[in-house]
Write a structure and sequence with these properties.
The structure is a homodimer. Helix content of chain A is 37%, strand content 19%. By secondary structure, chain A is an alpha+beta fold. In chain A, helix 1 runs antiparallel to helix 3, helix 8 crosses helix 10 and helix 8 runs antiparallel to helix 13. Chains A, B: It comes from Amylibacter marinus.
């Protein structure tokens, strides 16, 4: 019997039918939302508790069987693919809100909980969890990939919004990192080390999340621009002036066309900024007045401002559905997400060079950006069964990443490395990659925790 | 010749007189601002460049000679004491502003630069670096202890304000962490791992710091309260309502008395909140109006508000001099700083229990707090040559730390562990301490980087 089969047998002995080896369940956990080939794990475990996760890991450690954590499978870089075989550990049964501490603006949750479920649960408290990557991802998965999204410009990424963790290590030990205090100077910041570690150092089994009070007032605004530089320059000025805007999304003309068709809207087919303001009534008015002035300085068009929640919801639904709107134009292709983030002073250059490169190859790539953070996505659509087409699109995506590095940026602002971007690790981090590999070896000497992801271990 | 003497000889051969073994220079680098005994290093090196730091570390690694980094020596937990002997590496010659990137709100600096020198250098740019621990510390030292201070409630701690680092590792290798991009999901967050590592994992030789635009308007306010609970409840309400206040300092009645005497002021001898507001004219008025209302709800006294910079500067000078004001009351004693941080809901309980404990022992401890963060200091004054007095004060400080832990907090909000608080590491972190020790061994197998600090290595 193979080592993995031995581990599966032993886990089945204590989990019973919560260790599933059916083809259907395995296939479901071998999928991904990007262009990577499907790859079912050998079994899927459904633990109900941290103690069960620990027991599963101990058995896998004994047999050196790979373990792949699974939240909702919405990763865009193949994070949950069992590239070296092994057992997928689904956290779907561990999705409780364990405690809400309204006075401390904290919630203690299990990793399988999705962000929308948490916010629904919080509704009566007047609090919300601000990180919004678009997909209704699990909070554990969002932590593991250091996710962010449209609101990071105001509220930060998962890195800034997690106060404490419980983690099962590669030998099955359970540790706690951080505390309920807002800040601390007592040792290495293990919380921040696990956030973004993509399951390679341990499995997050509990999270203490920082919440925000629902703002007294929320307003949204939309403004179109004649060219993408003007829209980006508006963003740069807003960042430099420190306007505490809650969302500031760049949507290019091609994306607007797709959004109009998909969401039955009629925005002018030009680059737009979609904005949102949070604060007191006075602050929201003050911020949006400032943004109206900045937009006008860059020849922005009609500045459409609204405090009506239905108009606001329609706006953000259209923005969140942008990916599906684009995908609808390419029904038989798969999305290839790119995720470059550059210093804000380089954003216009990065985006205009990217558009020029795509145009030169006759490829249409729609550009959407969390512009206030210097982060943008150009989603390419490709038929993975057409080798020439796949190669061209991969080459263009590769050049976007290299362009980001050349401008002092990073190859991933929020999607992570997974299997897709390991080839850039040395270019981005130099010798620091060997330090990451040392950390990985120190935490996981037998390389069983989501092996083949994040850090090249050569 | 001892191994350390061999290292000193070898370093002297290439640094010349920038390797100093004079009694005076050694004594200067054996001091500390707390109650720990003086302890001169065997030599002090003054490198001029990262390459020289790397060379020094390589020689020390060869001879297994301890290396202690030195900024300005303003640590309060004996971080720079050579408790296992060895060579102190002063970064004072590495104090340049290497580059200011106003469009990206970044500055690249060397670690020996002090925060006041940086802000003086930035004056013409309209930008500033917000972290303010009171002392005019070196920015490298502030990074190494994860310092914060009065403005953290709005701008965060050193952890939130460093984008990238250059670090010399224990084998002399030079690595870079992070990039100029505002966010990234590409690997373990090494920047955050070095911030707060107290020189035990490597020596920071360059830092990319995040700057803020000078706010359009700044206002300050002072309000007194009948009791400390009312002042704290005002803070809790402000935090829960999300008022983006820039400073919110709690100063108890005893401290006010000391401040009045020292700074020739006449505040009522009652608990006070010292506040500062940053933003647009409209935002500053809006925030202070909100604070006036909240203070009134908790029976606050006269809410003295001012936008005049001379009044504001006098206020913050008085606050920053509070330690010296207290010390002036005890001219022959040494300060023993405490630094507990608790979840904000527990702040009133933590402080009132602390005051009761001090009162019960006839010890007067003034309480000053970065209340918006749940962080407070009770400074005790002690004659280290009186064993009974020292023992009593240490016991009281110990109980403050334990009280903080019992309330879900941390034994240090911003001063760090150094040599003084290692005894609490297991109580605060449990098994996670062994993970920190593993990280230390992975980075520094021969334990030469500031040995005897932060992580107990038993």
């Amino acid at each position: 019997m193979s080592k993995n089969a031995s581990a599966i047998n032993e886990i089945q002995a204590f989990l019973g039918e919560r260790l599933n080896t059916s083809a259907a369940v395995r296939a479901l956990h071998g999928q991904n939302e990007a262009h990577y080939p499907e790859m079912p794990p050998e079994a899927v475990a459904f633990p109900n508790s941290t103690a069960e996760v620990s027991e599963i890991v101990k058995i896998c450690a004994k047999h050196r069987c790979p373990i792949i954590p699974w939240g909702t499978g919405t990763s865009l870089e193949g994070h949950a693919l069992p590239v070296q075989g092994g057992i997928t550990v689904s956290l779907q049964n561990m999705s409780a809100v364990l405690e809400v501490l309204p006075e401390d603006l904290l919630a203690v949750v299990q990793p399988g909980l999705t962000r929308e479920a948490l916010n629904k649960d919080l509704r009566a408290t007047g609090l919300f969890f601000p990180v919004d990557p678009g997909a209704n991802a699990s909070l554990g998965g969002m932590a593991a990939t250091r996710a962010s999204g449209t609101t990071a410009v105001r509220y930060g990424t998962m890195k800034e919004n997690i106060r404490a963790l419980e983690v099962v290590l590669a030998d099955g030990r359970i540790i706690r990192t951080g505390s309920r205090a807002k800040k601390s100077s007592t040792g290495y910041d293990l919380t921040k080390l696990f956030v973004g570690s993509e399951g390679t150092l341990g499995i997050i089994t509990e999270m203490t999340l920082e919440l925000q009070g629902q703002p007294e007032a929320i307003a949204a605004a939309v403004c179109d621009f004649d060219d993408i530089e003007s829209a980006i320059n508006t963003v740069i000025m807003a960042v430099q002036m420190g306007v505490p805007i809650a969302r500031m999304e760049l949507v290019d003309g091609l994306s607007i066309k797709a959004i109009n068709a998909y969401s039955k809207l009629s925005y002018p087919e030009k680059p737009h900024l979609f904005m949102e303001f949070h604060g007191s009534e006075v602050a929201v008015k003050d911020q949006s007045e400032t943004m109206r002035e900045i937009s006008a300085d860059f020849q922005g068009g009609d500045f459409q401002w609204s405090t009506r929640s239905e108009e606001r919801n329609a706006l953000w639904a259209a923005r969140h559905n942008a990916y599906y709107a684009m995908k609808a134009l390419y029904p038989n292709k798969r999305g290839m997400a790119t995720d470059v983030c550059v210093p804000i002073s380089k954003l216009a250059q990065a985006i205009t060079e990217t558009i020029a490169d795509l145009d030169a190859h006759g490829v249409s790539g729609m550009i959407i950006g969390h512009a206030g953070d210097g982060n943008y996505h150009s989603t390419l659509f490709v038929d993975p069964d057409q080798p020439d087409e796949l190669a061209l699109h991969l080459k263009l995506a590769h050049r976007m990443a290299e362009r980001g590095l050349a401008l002092g940026g990073t190859v991933s602002g929020e999607h992570g490395i997974g299997v897709g971007k390991q080839k850039f690790m040395a270019a981005e981090h130099g010798d620091a990659v060997s330090v990451m590999a040392d950390i990985k070896r120190s935490f996981d000497p037998d390389n069983i925790m989501n092996p083949g992801k994040l850090v090249p271990m050569n």
